[in-house]
Specification:
binds magnesium ion; binds adenosine-5'-diphosphate; alpha/beta; single chain; about 240 residues; 4-stranded antiparallel β-sheet; globular
């Protein structure tokens, strides 16, 4: 940092940016062009709902944004850094450091407690058991699960399992949270509750987030809404 330069004047890179991203899949004889030229910039701390019908490419977009897939064309920036030409090892490193995922199904480790499921990713990253447990407790308590720390996933309700998955995704304080229909598997009332908790935590932690959902009421709680149209990202409203 230059001496005397106020931090406000320094430009802050976008948390995630897709620039001219194309992604196609070959299926039998044909090629499906899921994304043709997708552009999307997510500012640090900004929450964005991705609302589009099934099969239009929401999961594909999230996988590209989280460096789980390579674009066929274009570039994916994480925290201002171009990633397309990086090695798989480097992409994995960036993903582990900067990106958290929540899926429709919780994918928690069945043999471990709620607390351990949230502490483990932090210990893998090098935190002490104590520090990892403290943060896990803090996150789980924030999500209303302070009384469920020692329960295994099978001893939790669907909504509780999903809240543990949200805590796990945020355990390592990522810059970017990617959630793929995180409440799609829950009944409407539980879905509202879990989505509310997710929204609160996103705003409280200041993580940038892209949340794919079919629920327009829930999408209205995000800072911004986008949809997919013929392989491009379009702002809604
Ligand atoms: P959404 O999440 O919006 O339902 P997806 O991103 O999962 O959409 O899929 C978009 C399209 O791409 C669908 O037509 C799907 O069948 C196709 N697709 C996704 N992944 C693959 C793949 N690995 N191989 C072939 N086709 C795929
Ligand atoms: Mg999907």
């Amino acid at each position: 940092m230059h001496a005397g330069l106020p931090s406000e004047t320094q430009s802050v890179p976008a948390a995630m940016a897709l620039v001219g991203v194309a992604r196609r899949y070959t299926q039998g004889e044909g090629v499906i062009e899921v994304l043709k030229s997708a552009d999307l910039v997510i500012e640090p701390g900004q929450s964005v709902a991705l609302v589009a019908p099934s099969g239009t490419g929401k999961s594909t977009l999230l996988h590209l944004a989280g460096l789980l897939e390579h674009p066929d064309e274009g570039e994916v920036f994480i925290d201002g850094r171009a990633t397309a030409k990086l090695s798989d090892a480097e992409r994995t490193r960036i993903r582990r450091l900067h990106v958290g995922f929540v899926y429709q199904f919780h994918h928690l480790l069945p043999e471990f407690s709620a607390l351990e499921n949230v502490a483990l990713p932090q210990m893998i990253r090098g935190l002490s058991r104590k520090a990892a447990d403290d943060r896990a407790k803090e996150l789980l308590s924030y999500l209303g699960l302070g009384h469920r720390l020692t329960h295994r996933p099978s001893e939790l309700s669907g909504g509780e399992q999903q809240r543990v998955a949200i805590a796990r995704a945020l355990a390592n304080a990522p810059r970017l949270l990617l959630a793929d229909e995180p409440t799609g598997n829950l009944d409407p009332k539980t879905s509202d509750h879990v989505f509310g908790a997710l929204t609160e935590l996103v705003h409280a932690t200041g993580v940038a987030a892209i949340i794919a959902t079919h629920n327009l009421t829930l999408a209205a709680q995000m800072d911004r809404r986008v949809t997919l149209h013929e392989g491009t990202v379009v702002e809604m409203e």
